[in-house]
Amino acid sequence: MTAGQMNAAQRLAAVFPMPVIALHPGALDGIDAQLRLYADGRLPAAARRPTTTQRASRRVAAIGIHGPLTNRGSFIGDIFGWSNYADIGAEVSQAIADDTIDEIVLDIDSPGGDVAGCQELATLIASSPKPVTAFACGICASAAYWLASQATRIIAMPSSQV
Prior knowledge:
Elements: H1 8-15, E1 21-23, H2 27-39, E2 54-57, E3 60-66, E4 69-70, H3 75-80, E5 83-84, H4 85-97, E6 103-110, E7 112-114, H5 118-126, E8 132-140, H6 143-148, E9 153-156
Helix pairs in contact: 1-2, 4-5
């Protein structure tokens, strides 16, 4: 079978192993298109973004959960700006330990992702002694919703897909 005969899921599985994923089905075509651009050298470095962000303002830690979710960072995630559970967990733990932070806000725009690692991060979010707000801005599906469901509350924009 040639690359042209494979569907998006088969091409992604050939590039990197992901045995079990919780990903919005429509996200596969977008990921496949980005992989093709990257393979053709048409994805500029400027399109890359950090996997997560954190900023403290008015005693609130905002933690970004954007793009497909992976258990750990990878070159694919770095290329496309995906978030990973290891980095998000480190940021949540840091916010919990910081006495100057009163609340944690998860800024979510993700179709979901890897199942491996999701439960561990969800448990960390659920056990936070500080209030956690999940803010859905765009899509909050599958594994991303699993994380959001462990927050103290979920807020979604009217146009968000939750």
